[in-house]
């Protein structure tokens, strides 16, 4: 398992370096007190770099982590999540971010193991509302509105 992690870490390290170089080449808007076009890609590069280095260190130390569930169950959950994401992308323009995100987060919460209805309901509503507020108020980025808010 550590060898697979090492190969994955090296591939991701190359990808992160390439993505970082492309991010650095983005033009600057020059507007005061606003994040430029490279802000979010820069955050993604930083997060991906940290996670890739952690994977590389873990693999070099020879630490192998065995999956907690059977491989077939992980694959099934992954395909359900990918299917939910595809449906989410298709319906978001019509329904808008908020109305499309609530059922999407409910499905993801259920797929990854939460079975308490109250927790699924609260998280599937709270996460999209929080993201909407952060993007609209904090970053002043409009998300798709569709038929909804």
Characterize this entry briefly.
The protein is mainly α and 149 residues long. It is 72% helix and 0% strand.
Q: Which secondary structure elements does this structure contain, and how are they paired or packed?
A:
Elements (H helix, E strand, L loop, with lengths): L1 H23 L14 H22 L10 H25 L1 H15 L5 H22 L11
Q: What this model shows, in words?
A:
The chain is built from 5 helices and no strands. With 149 residues, it is mainly alpha-helical. The protein folds into 2 domains: 2-60; 71-138, no CATH class. Helix 3 (71-95) packs antiparallel against helix 4 (97-111) and helix 4 (97-111) crosses helix 5.
Question: What descriptors fit this protein?
Answer:
2 domains, 0% strand, 149 residues, mainly alpha, flat
Using the CA coordinates, give the radius of gyration: 19 Å
First-last Cα distance: 46 Å
Identify low-pLDDT runs.
none
| Mean of pLDDT | 83
What characterizes the major β-sheet? none
Q: Determine the structural class based on helices, strands and strand pairing.
A: mainly alpha
Number of discrete helical segments: 5
Number of domains: 2
Number of strands: 0
Helix content: over 70%
Q: Which range does the strand content fall in?
A: under 5%
Shape field: flat
| Order of SSEs | HHHHH
């Amino acid at each position: 398992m550590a060898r697979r992690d090492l190969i994955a870490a090296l591939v991701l390290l190359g990808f992160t370096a390439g993505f970082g170089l492309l991010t650095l080449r983005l033009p600057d808007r020059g507007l005061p007190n606003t994040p430029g076009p490279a802000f979010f890609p820069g955050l993604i590069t930083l997060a991906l770099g940290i996670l890739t280095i952690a994977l590389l260190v873990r693999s070099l130390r020879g630490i192998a982590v065995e999956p907690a569930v059977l491989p077939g169950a992980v694959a099934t959950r992954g395909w359900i999540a990918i299917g939910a994401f595809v449906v989410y992308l298709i319906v978001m323009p019509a329904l808008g971010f908020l109305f499309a995100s609530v059922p999407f987060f409910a499905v993801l919460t259920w797929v990854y193991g939460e079975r308490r209805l109250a927790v699924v309901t609260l998280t599937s509503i709270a996460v999209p509302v929080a993201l909407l507020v952060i993007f609209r108020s904090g970053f002043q980025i409009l998300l798709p509105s569709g038929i909804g808010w």
